Amino acid sequence: MANHKSALKRHRQSLLARARNRAVKTRVRNAIKAVRVALAGGDTTAAESALLTVTKALDKAATKKVIHWKTAARNISRLSLAVNKSKQA
After folding, report:
1. Which among 11, 37, 56, 65 is placed 20 to 30 Å from 21, CA to CA?
2. Which contacts qualify for 82-86: CB closer than 8 Å, 24 or more apart?
């Protein structure tokens, strides 16, 4: 455990950041799951609306540097592809 005043403060800050980052990642994972569940159920309209939500969540997480921007782009791309395929089918 840290002993210096500045190190103690930095530790407190890191705990807050960790909690914030975990909340963002959980929100993103749940949004992705909602799209996949809608696709599995064959509900394209629900999948489209969930895709908008997940796109916003991923972009925000990438902007805040919680996840890498290429990871966000890859997830958005793959989910969009899956939703578009389900619309055509």
Report:
1. 37
2. 82/35, 82/36, 82/39, 82/47, 83/35, 83/39, 83/44, 83/47, 83/48, 83/51, 86/39, 86/42, 86/44, 86/47
Percent of the chain residues past pLDDT 70, beyond the cut: 100
Separation between Cα atoms, residue 43 and residue 86, nearest integer Å: 9
pTM over 0.90: no
Average pLDDT, the chain: 96
Closest alpha carbon to 83 in 31, 54, 47, 58: 47
- What is the tens place of the pLDDT at every residue in 53-79? 999 999 999 999 999 999 999 999 999
CB neighbour burial string for 12-24, b if at least 16 within 10 angstroms, e if fewer = eeeeeeeeeeeeb
What are the E-state strand segments in 1-89?
A: none
